[in-house]
Each structure stands twice: as structure tokens, then as C-alpha cells.
Design a protein that fits this description.
The chain is of the alpha+beta class. Helix content is 42%, strand content 16%.
Length: 944
């Protein structure tokens, strides 16, 4: 029991902030359940991959600073897949007591840790994680268990349930009973249920029993209800009652002290100032480059040096650690439309001091060129067992407080956490022995689960193993193995020595070899072109277009320096200006400027272009160079801006799937589709020659079924990415098919139709066949739908450009695109297809396949005398239909009505006769009741 009035009071606050703050922050719980439900398959051949994918959206539910249950159970599955599979089978066995299952899962995790832990301190599979697995599997029965959270909820609601540390079984049973009571109350709150329903999307589990909502209400009570004043709101800067008590003059003096404000610290300051004095780490990362960690950890390290230098006051945390960033900034929670979680603002005195000094020589944008590092897993601090574990997990480990080395005041720990970046190279030594040459493969830095206590790790990819693991005895530098250093960058001026001492003798490589094919130093550009002068959308993939550095008057183009900075291999976002105003292509600089021209190669056209309005609405792109000066051609993009735009593009234009597709050939077609081999050969020949074909025939002859498999057989694989399907109807128009203006909030906007987008998609892969399938092609107004396409779809006019009426730009239909239409010849309500369109298509009759080899094989396999008799009668029926002058062969009964039976029973065959065949005959012979009755008797007589 608990105080229900207290719960109702809680729900008043919860509902007030649900849509604005609670749901955006906590929606991932519902998404995590949906992801698990979609991917979970305990019998999967690749159980480890399935498990990782099923848990991929759990986020901090199964991972935190000192807790890694998802990662650990996945690692166990990599080593002992069948044991972990059996653990989950038992855990999800609802016939057993719930705590007995949880306890067994823990015990078996202990066993896995002993055998495969490689020195890891714990397996992390405790009640919280195991109950989370149960909730993911049975989201309408279980909840997430977290003792501290449950005790807070119990206290706030004054419940009768008790929860004691160590009383695991009782705690679990009381927890489930307690949350079931809360859930029952939530189900009575219609307003709350409607709020949830209004926010649920297709990516979320629908939560019909409100168990996930119950979890979230509990989380709200424990984390926020009694802590409203502990953290700032989105509208107030924090802390308001603390200051480092440093004047503008004192900050100015500190800025001139390179032991405090190192090069990287000044870069952070200059970027904060350039961004307007306030930004999230994510915003700085997107705009100027470097990782979020560079700004986060780098700011904390800078603040620490300021405190050490000045002795200024700091803000202690509850756990006796120090909150460093308020020395430099005040902060507040980011708004929903801001990228990142927390906004920092430069303290006024520091801001003013920054404006006094000359920052001209400080880099505004990150240097993307990889840095070379030495990292040592020293024998004094890392045991052999730990080093073996790190090697197996492919992580490099350094303590965050490792001291500075040499003349620099930047600590080695700060270098590892903040300054090292994805793409940097390092060689790894164990003591004085060189072991590996590697590359950092992520910007993420995590606490090392084996050592914890400030030890951090980064993951890497191995490039080469050392050819000699004997103790190094060469020249000594800060970055050589025989120096007592842990994480040291190789100076740019000493790369030649680095080649001589390390790379050549131990790996037979040089820095030049490693950088030759490196793309991390690549630049990114936004190309703005007038489509009436140069249409990137109609430019074939692979074609190269030159662009002059000077306009027709001989004057330099705007932002001329960008043309000089662009290098071969740089990536380019292709944007067409008015009237299109869309991103239409991905391009690459194929050759840098030669003094007169620069050269662009088209890599991909976008079947779903990205509108200017969509770009402009993204706060992450608000400082893009193009938005500050739209007059010009070539604009700089940061790596973060490019990747953000590329993500937008991929949301609408997914990259082709790389997975292997099922093979499909002529033999498979003839097995699936009941057509003779000679007819198939003729159909393929006609389609390849004419490019457009209409499959016509009576209902039930398998036109739709055959169309897709015809495409598969020509592609020689099952690839639905290269097939588009649409059905015409009387209201279908050119605006739906090609393009047209559609209403938006403030007027009308040009939108591209399904055929236009599919042509753009096909144009990206001219070496592959694409198929556009149109069902019920004769139900639409063909001239109205096709417009000028009547010419462009002709085989002789493929790849020929014509000007479109709506946007005045050129367009062509690629040769690799084939159109397959389907037409029902038995529908009397449809007019004949017009002659202009008929000339562009070949018409192929699809007939009942009762005589085909495939159907006869299927019929023989059923071994049913009644079925054989029914087929004989339908053949007789078809002969009579063909002889009927008012009908003909286009009205015959197709074979598909009698295919794909799981069991050939009399009831199934009667249903086909009564509900498929006889209703059709009643339409055919609506004016001849005797003939209809005769055939009804004949068909029913089969079952007598």
C-alpha cells in the first residue's frame, strides 16, 4: 500500500513537464524496448551479433561510468556463445520463479568471469541489469529495478513496502508488487495516457500496459521531485552564488602565461569567443572540429591549472571531488532545439580579458592532420594479466592524472583524454619493448572497467605488429621507449627521426606511408551552383565538370581563398540555387585548381533532395559559412557540419545495402512463376529491347507476382532497393508521379514525385538494372500522369535530356531503368490505353499457367484427386470463356487462385470456388443465368 494522494500530486508535476522535457530526455526507454523486440531471436545463428544489436539502444540503462553490463555480457557471448544463449533461455522461462532465475543468471555470470574474465574485477550482471533484460523481453510484465531509486519512490509515496540492502529476493518481490500498484493507478489517469499516446512514434514500443511509463514516473520521483533546486533550469545560469574572484586584469595576466593557457586552451577560448561567448561542447565540435572531449576535458584541465596558479576558490561536489568548469564559465541546461546537453558561457571578466589580447595566431579551426604518439603500458602500474586483457579488447589505457612530461604544462593524462583524436597514430610499448603500431578509432574516452579509479581507455585498430620485441636500445627522446613517458606526441620537427628510430626498423613503414591514403586531413565544401547554368542533378554520376576561378568579367570569384585551399579528394555537398534551392548531389574535387579552373566529380545524385528550409532550420548549422554569405560558389564546411548534413542526406537517401543478396536466376523464376521457358525468354528479350512492357491478362494469372520476379531474374539477385512499386488510380497525377507544388505552412513548395526520385536513384548506378513497376496502369489518366515523359521513356530517347515544365531544368530517364506495367483485361469499366502511350510499351499476354511445367509439378506434389478434377473443370471453363464472343482469352480464370496452399483440403478448394471464381463468373454472365447456374453445378459437383 502507498499514499495515492501523494502519487496524484507527483503526477501533476510530471504531466506539466512531460511533453517539453521528460519525453525528449527519456523517450529512449521506449525506443530501447522496441529495438530489443524487433531484434531478439534466441535461436539466431549469430547469437552474439543479435544480442549486441538487440541491446544497442539501451544507452545508460545498461552502461554508466562504473557499470558495463551490456558490454560485458556481449563479450562473454563472443567467447562462450552457447553458454550465454542458455543463460538467457533460462532467464526468460516464465514457468520458473523470477528470483530463482535472476539468482541463477548471477551465479552463471560468476562462473564466466572466473573462466573468461582475464582479470576483470566484476561481471556487472546484478539485479538491476538482469531485471532490465526481463523488462526488455517482457515489457508488459516487468520493470527496471534500481534499489536506490525504489527506496526514494517508496519514501516519497509513504509505502508499506520495505527494501533492505542484501535482501535481494524480498526486495525484488516487494518491488514488483509496489510498481504493479503504481501502474494500476496510472491506468486510471486518462490525461496521462493521452499524453503518452500523443508522443509515441513508430520507433517506440507502444507500452499498452504502461509498465515503461511506470518506470519513468519512478525515475522522475527519485531524480527530480525532491531536487528541483539542485540544478539550474533551462532559463537560468548556474552557479549564481560562486565566483573565482578573478578580475579582468588577473585573467589577462593568466592568458599570457603559457603554463596555464596552453595552445589547446587558447584554441578553446578563441572558439568560445567566436561562437558568441556561449556554446555546448557539441556545438563547438561541429563548428570548429575536435571531439567533444577536447572541449569538456580540456576546459576542466585548464580550470585546474588556474586554481593551482591563483589559489582561487572552487565548488566542491558531494563526493568530495571538485567541480572545475565554473572557474571559467557559468552554465545552464541546453534547450530542446540546441545540440548538446549543457551550455557554457564565458565568465564576464574572462570574456573581457580575451577581447584585450591578440588571438590572431591561435587556430580557429582544428588541424585534422593525424598526430603520432608514443603510449606505454608500463610494467610498474599495469600487470601482465591486465596488459593481456587490454590487448585482447583492443584498448589502450592511461590514467587521467598522469603528470606532464618535459617543458609542457599539459599533463599526459590531459593529452590522452582531451587532445588525442580519432585518426591519430600511436605505437604501443610494454615497458621498453615495442609491440604494436595502431590507430585511434573513436573520439570516445571511457573509464577502464578493469582498473577504474581514474584509468581511462580508448579503442584502436592495429596497423602492424612489431618485427622485434626485444628491449629498445636506440637513441633516447621523450617519445622513445627508453624514456619514462606514458603518452607523448611526436613533434612535427622530429618526424624524420621517428621514421628512423621507430617506424622503419620495427614496422617497415614511414610517416609518409601512413599519411598517403589518410582521409582525416580532408576538407569539406558546400558548392552553390545556378541550375540554369550548371545542373548537378542532371549530370551523370562519374562525370567531371570544370568550374572557372574567375567570372566572365575576369574578376576573382567570391571567397577566392576557398578555391585555392580546396584539394583533390576533398568532399563536396552539391547545392542548386533558385529555383531549386536543394542539395541534389554528393561530389568530390577530382583535381585541384590549375590557376584557371577547379574540377568536380559527381559521386551520387539524391533521389530525395534536401530543401534549403530544412537546412536553415537546423541550429547545428546556423554558423555555416554559406548562411553568412549566400552570394558565392564555394563555401567552407567543418567536418562536423559535413557529417551532420550527410546524416540528413542518409536519412532520406540510404546508402545501398552492402549485405549479400539472395541469388535469383531464370531457373528460379520458372520454378516460382508458372510460365513456359520459351515465353520467359521472349518476355526478357522484349523488355530489354523496348525498356517498357505491360503484362496484361485476366485476374489471377499472377501479373504482380511475376513482375517482381522478372526483375529479380534480370538482376540475378533479390534486391528490392532497385525496385519501386506504385499503383495508379483515377486521381493519380503528374504532381504525384514527377513533380509539383504542394502546400506548406507559408505557401507552396516544389516537391519531387516517386518516378523522378527513382530515376535519380538509378542514375547513381548506371551499371545496374532498375525496375519501376506500375500496378493497374490503365486506371490512371496516362497523358496527365506522364506528361513530357511520353517521349523520354522511349528506348531511343533514354539518356536524352528534355526541359521540364515545372522547374525549367533538364531531365532524362536512364537506360538502366525498366518500366513494367500491369493491366487487367477483364475489367469492363476501364477505357483502352491511348495510342500515344501504347506505342511506347510492348504488351505481353499473361495466360493461365495450368499447362506449364511448374504448375504441373506443383499439382503432382499435392497428389489430390479432387484438386486434379477441379483443375480439369477450370480448363474446360476457360475454353468456353475463350469461345464466348463477349469475353475471350483475356477473361480466363488464372492459376494463382489455386496456388500456395499449405494444405489442399476440400474446404479450401470450396472457398476458392465460392468466393473467387463464382463471383467473377456472375460478372461475366450477368445476363445468362442458366449458363452461370450450369457452371456453378459443374464446379460444385467436383466435391460430390
Amino acid at each position: 500500500m502507498f499514499d495515492k494522494f501523494r502519487l496524484k500530486a507527483v503526477l501533476v508535476d510530471y504531466k506539466k513537464c512531460f511533453v517539453q522535457t521528460q519525453w525528449p530526455d527519456e523517450k529512449y526507454k521506449w525506443e530501447a524496448v522496441k529495438c530489443f523486440q524487433v531484434n531478439w531471436d534466441v535461436n539466431s545463428d549469430d547469437f552474439t551479433y543479435m544480442l549486441a544489436k538487440a541491446l544497442s539502444q539501451t544507452g545508460n540503462l545498461l552502461a554508466s561510468v562504473n557499470n558495463f553490463p551490456a558490454r560485458m555480457i556481449t563479450k562473454f557471448a563472443e567467447i562462450a556463445e552457447e553458454e550465454v544463449r542458455a543463460m538467457f533461455i533460462e532467464l526468460f522461462d516464465e514457468s520458473k520463479d523470477v528470483y530463482e532465475r535472476i539468482s541463477n543468471f548471477k551465479q552463471k555470470s560468476n562462473s564466466l568471469l572466473e573462466r573468461y574474465g582475464n582479470g576483470a574485477a566484476q561481471h556487472y550482471q546484478y539485479e538491476n541489469a538482469i531485471c532490465t533484460y526481463l523488462w526488455l523481453r517482457y515489457p508488459d510484465k516487468y520493470y527496471i529495478y534500481k534499489l536506490s531509486e525504489i527506496k526514494a519512490v517508496s519514501s516519497e509515496l509513504e509505502s508499506d513496502y520495505t527494501f533492505k540492502k542484501g535482501a535481494y529476493a524480498d526486495n525484488i518481490r516487494n518491488f514488483l508488487a509496489f510498481y504493479n500498484e503504481i501502474c494500476a493507478e496510472l491506468k486510471q489517469d486518462d490525461e496521462l495516457k493521452n499524453l503518452l499516446a500523443s508522443q509515441i512514434t513508430g520507433t517506440c514500443y507502444p507500452d499498452p500496459e504502461l509498465h515503461t511509463l511506470t518506470i519513468d514516473v519512478g525515475f522522475f520521483i527519485s531524480r527530480y521531485l525532491n531536487k528541483k533546486d539542485a540544478t539550474p533550469t533551462a532559463d537560468e545560469w548556474w552557479p549564481s552564488d560562486y565566483t573565482p574572484a578573478l578580475s579582468v586584469d588577473e585573467w589577462e595576466a593568466l592568458l599570457g602565461d603559457n603554463e596555464v593557457f596552453t595552445d589547446s586552451s587558447l584554441e578553446i577560448m578563441k572558439r568560445m569567443l567566436d561562437y558568441g561567448g556561449k556554446a555546448t561542447c557539441t556545438q563547438l565540435s561541429i563548428k570548429y572540429g575536435e571531439s567533444k572531449n577536447f572541449y569538456n576535458a580540456g576546459s576542466s584541465a585548464l580550470a585546474k591549472r588556474v586554481v593551482q596558479k591563483t589559489g582561487c576558490p572552487v565548488i566542491p561536489r558531494d563526493d568530495d571531488s571538485t567541480r572545475w568548469w565554473p572557474v571559467l564559465y557559468v552554465g545552464k541546461n541546453a534547450k530542446k532545439d540546441e545540440d548538446g546537453a549543457f551550455v557554457w558561457k564565458l565568465r564576464d571578466e574572462l570574456n573581457e580579458a580575451l577581447k584585450r589580447i591578440d588571438l590572431a595566431k591561435v587556430k580557429l579551426y582544428a588541424n585534422l592532420t593525424p598526430v603520432f604518439w608514443k603510449i606505454s603500458h608500463g610494467t610498474d602500474w599495469i600487470t601482465d594479466a591486465e596488459a593481456a586483457t587490454f590487448d585482447k579488447r583492443r584498448v589502450v589505457v592511461v590514467h587521467k592524472d598522469t603528470a606532464a612530461k618535459g617543458k609542457t604544462k599539459v599533463s599526459q593524462g590531459e593529452d590522452f583524454v582531451a587532445n588525442m583524436k580519432k585518426g591519430d597514430f600511436f605505437y604501443l610499448c610494454r615497458g621498453n619493448s615495442i609491440r604494436l603500431l595502431c590507430r585511434i578509432d573513436t573520439d570516445e574516452v571511457e573509464e577502464n572497467p578493469e582498473k577504474q579509479d581514474g584509468w581511462c581507455e580508448r579503442s584502436y585498430t592495429v596497423i602492424a605488429e612489431s618485427r622485434d620485441t626485444n628491449a629498445y636500445s636506440g637513441e633516447k627522446k621523450w617519445w622513445t621507449p627508453n624514456d619514462n613517458s606514458t603518452c607523448i606526441p611526436v613533434p612535427e620537427s622530429e618526424k624524420g627521426l621517428f621514421d628512423e628510430y621507430i617506424l622503419k626498423p620495427y614496422f617497415n613503414l614511414t610517416t609518409e606511408d601512413l599519411l598517403r591514403n589518410d582521409t582525416s586531413g580532408m576538407h569539406y565544401w558546400f558548392l552553390n551552383a545556378n541550375p540554369k547554368m550548371w545542373s548537378m542533378s542532371s549530370m551523370p554520376v562519374g562525370e567531371v565538370q570544370d568550374y572557372t576561378l574567375y567570372n566572365d568579367n575576369g574578376n576573382k570569384r567570391r571567397i577566392f581563398q576557398n578555391f585555392l585551399d580546396a584539394k583533390a579528394g576533398d568532399m563536396v555537398i552539391g547545392y542548386e540555387s533558385t529555383p531549386v534551392k536543394q542539395i541534389v548531389a554528393l561530389m568530390r574535387i577530382s583535381a585541384e585548381q590549375d590557376g584557371e579552373k577547379i574540377y568536380f566529380e559527381k559521386l551520387e545524385g539524391l533521389s530525395s533532395p534536401i530543401d534549403f528550409a530544412t537546412l536553415k532550420a537546423c541550429s547545428e548549422l546556423e554558423r555555416m559559412e554559406y548562411f553568412g554569405m549566400q552570394q558565392g560558389s564555394l563555401f567552407k564546411l567543418t567536418k562536423g557540419e559535413y557529417e551532420f548534413i550527410l546524416d540528413m542526406i542518409r536519412d532520406e537517401n540510404p546508402a545501398p545495402a552492402s549485405k549479400g543478396n539472395e541469388k535469383y536466376d531464370k531457373a528460379k523464376f520458372l520454378e516460382d512463376v508458372y510460365m513456359t521457358e520459351s515465353k520467359y525468354d521472349r518476355l526478357v528479350a522484349v523488355l530489354k529491347k523496348k525498356k517498357n512492357v505491360i503484362l496484361q491478362g485476366a485476374p489471377g494469372v499472377g501479373k504482380t507476382f511475376a513482375a517482381k520476379r522478372l526483375a529479380y531474374s534480370i538482376m540475378e539477385e533479390v534486391d528490392d532497393d532497385r525496385i519501386e512499386f506504385v499503383q495508379f488510380h483515377q486521381n493519380y497525377s503528374y504532381e504525384d508521379f514527377m513533380m509539383g507544388y504542394k502546400p506548406v505552412e507559408d505557401g507552396f513548395e516544389l516537391k519531387y514525385g516517386i518516378f523522378y526520385r527513382f530515376c535519380q536513384k538509378a542514375a547513381n548506378h548506371l551499371d545496374k538494372d532498375y525496375f519501376f513497376i506500375i500496378d493497374e496502369i490503365n486506371r490512371g489518366n496516362m497523358s496527365k500522369i506522364f506528361g513530357e515523359l511520353l517521349m523520354l521513356i522511349e528506348a531511343d530517347y533514354r539518356d536524352k535530356k528534355a526541359t521540364l515544365a515545372y522547374n525549367g531544368l533538364s531531365f532524362s530517364v536512364p537506360k538502366c531503368l525498366h518500366i513494367i506495367g500491369m493491366m487487367n483485361t477483364a475489367d469492363r469499366s476501364l477505357a483502352m490505353i491511348d495510342y500515344a502511350l501504347r506505342r511506347r510499351f510492348s504488351f505481353f499476354d499473361m495466360e493461365p499457367g495450368f499447362e506449364s511445367e511448374g504448375f504441373m509439378k506443383y499439382q503432382k506434389g499435392l497428389a489430390n484427386d479432387t484438386f486434379d478434377a477441379l483443375i480439369d473443370k477450370i480448363k474446360d471453363l476457360n475454353r468456353e470463356i475463350m469461345q464466348d464472343k463477349s469475353l475471350g482469352k483475356g477473361f480466363c480464370i488464372g492459376h494463382s487462385y489455386l496456388c500456395n496452399a499449405k494444405q489442399c483440403t476440400d474446404d479450401w478448394m470450396k472457398d476458392v470456388v465460392d468466393f473467387d471464381i463464382l463471383p467473377m463468373l456472375s460478372e461475366y454472365w450477368f445476363d445468362d443465368a442458366k449458363k452461370l447456374q450450369r457452371w456453378e453445378n459443374i464446379l460444385h459437383g467436383v466435391f460430390q
